[in-house]
Amino acid sequence: MSYSQNTINLETCYEGLNANYPLVKQHIILNHQNETELSAIKTQALPQLKLNAQATYQSDVTEVPIPNTGIEPLNNDQYRATLTANQLIYAGGKIKASQDLQNTINERKKQEVTVSLYQLKQRVNQLYFSILLMDDYAKLLGLRKAQLTSKLNEVKSGIENGLLLPTSDKVIEAELLKILQQIQEANNNKSKLINSLADFTGISIQMETQFEKPFLSIDDNSNLLRPEIGLFDLQKEEIEQQQNIVSKSLWPELKGFATGGYGNPGLNMLENNFRSFYIIGLNINWNVFDWNTNKKQRQVLDYNKELIKNQEEVFRLTNNIALNEQYKEIETLKSSIAIDQQLISLQKEVVNTYESQLTYGVITTSEYITELTKLYETENLYNQHNTQLQLAKANYKTIKGDIK
To answer: Which PANTHER family does this UniProt record tie to the protein (predicted)?
Structure first.
């Protein structure tokens, strides 16, 4: 997937993950598998044909021990070929129940894929906001570089006029080299992050692509919308349908059958020649007593359902704990941002004072650089806290299941 515009946002990354991550292909495979399984189940309602042929030699045969009856004794070698058709007439709804179970199994498997895919979204969050941090850091370095370059020209002018020491410009030049090095490192880190994000989302992302800053809002209600909840529901539904099939195994099965054959002897065992024959009838199978096996099987499935309910309870508890922790992280970052704003305001006043003093040679260039560095570090921390706040909100929404 190629992203044609020059900007990208977090929602687009989610959409790319949902559409392009290799795991998504399993949905199509599972649907094809389900169609095949359903087709196989349907064949249980179709006539079943069985061909049987045998040739035997018997050491003894049936004879009529009455003289002068004219009944010829059977041959010791005997032959028979039959074709039998069985047609299921009644099975207590087992076939329909098996189809329903198979559809639920398919939905459960697809939901497992959805859960695995959803769990990758926190990784997408981390990559996306790490790129934003690198962008903010690089922009701040660029501003610092521009300000120092401007100040370098002033310092050189001061040196020429004898107001500043001859080596004053060297301190700024060294600092500019450090900034260039930091910008290069930030760009390298951003490139690695972009490559990873592109791999996850299947989106073609360039270094020049602008990443939009999301401004997310959260609500503090505790309703979990995670796909795992849907998975637990499907697992319980699957067990209930298994119990239904187990219960139906107690019901009788009625089949009609027809057998046609050719052999020597035929159905008349006293006629010693090849004859064709047929048999038609009904067959009923009913296990009227199973030593409570059926009941025990359903009890085992009840225990499985209780285990799933327990897993869901643990999942909800764990996620609520994570939501509370994330909410506290959000509140902490809000407080930090408020303090950052105050620190930036104070440090700007200090830098303005030092800038005037540097112009008149009251302080050294190193002293000015120290205070300017403090300002940019404070501004960088402010940017970090803002981005971390949005990341914390994105993670909160992800933990809650409030994203698509």
So the answer is: OUTER MEMBRANE PROTEIN TOLC (PTHR30026)
Q: How many other C-beta atoms are found inside a 10 Å radius of the C-beta of residue 151?
A: 21
d(CA 18, CA 311) in angstroms, rounded, equals: 26
Q: What are 131-176's pLDDT values in tens digits? A: 999 999 999 999 889 988 988 888 888 887 776 777 778 888 999 9
And the tokens for 145? 């570089």
Residues 6+ apart with CB under 8 A from 49: 83, 84, 85
- Cα separation, 230 vs 108, whole angstroms: 9
Q: Kindly report the CA angle at 224 between 122 and 397, in degrees rounded to 5?
A: 35
**Could you tell me the strand order of the sheet in which 253-264 lies?**
48-57, 77-90, 253-264, 275-285
Q: Residue 71 gets which letter from DSSP?
A: P
CATH of domain 7-46+94-251+293-400: 1.20.1600.10
